[in-house]
Amino acid sequence: MAPRLDAMSYVIRTAPAPGALTELIRRAIGEVDANLALAQVRTLQDTLDRAAAQMAFTMVLLAIAAGVSLMLGVIGIYGAMSYIVSQRTAEIGVRLALGAEPGSVAWMVVRQGGIVAFAGIIVGLATAFAGSRLIASLLYGVGPRDPGVFAGTTLLLFVVVLLACWLPARRAARLSPLEALRTE
After folding, report:
1. 72-86, 90-104, 140-154: lowest mean pLDDT where?
2. Residue 152 CB-half CA count within 13 A
3. Does the global pTM surpass 0.85?
4. What is the widest separation between alpha-carbon atoms in the chain?
5. Sign of torsion over alpha carbons 51, 52, 55, 57
6. Domain containing 178: what range?
7. Is 99 left (phi over 0), alpha (psi -120 to 50) or beta?
């Protein structure tokens, strides 16, 4: 918010409660110039609370945006892995017909998604580490390169990706070899 050129602010330190002095301050300003108006009287605590509330609201909005982004990512990964499994149905059927264990088929699908996710997480960590100085002034109580935040985020993303890959992998492992071979 840009500072207003037609307004002045005063900070007054008082021994008694600040709210009790409002009328006294109004009279003192009126004695200096009757045309001056006292628009807002706030305590320092009120001002700090207002600033903290704005920051908290911004953080809630960012958390909602992050949650929506994570959900869209999960849906996208699930959709991509489901598509890959549907395209490889015949191959999976052949593997199962030749004696592949369902667990190894599921692991193959999860591993394929996990490798791509791992590469994405590495690129994301490098980008976050490089850009951490840009957001340092917005952080309170945590450093811009806090290892706990980086580790927690990495773990969360990796678990979410593996869960998004697991459902298509489980479906692939449950395929009947006969039905899978008939799809071609």
Report:
1. 140-154
2. 5
3. no
4. 98
5. negative
6. 52-182
7. left
The two tokens of residue 77 are 């990964």
Q: Residue 137 has what pLDDT?
A: 74
Give the tokens for residue 9: 């602010």
CA 9 to chain centre: 37
Q: How far from 110 is each of 5, 78, 106, CA to CA, in Å? A: 61, 11, 6
* Total count of domains within the chain: 1
**32 lies in some domain:** no
Q: Which residue has the tokens 């700090």?
A: 48
**Is residue 29 one of the residues assigned to a domain?**
no
In a domain, 130, yes or no: yes
Summarised one tens digit per residue, pLDDT across range 68-88 is 998 998 899 899 989 998 898
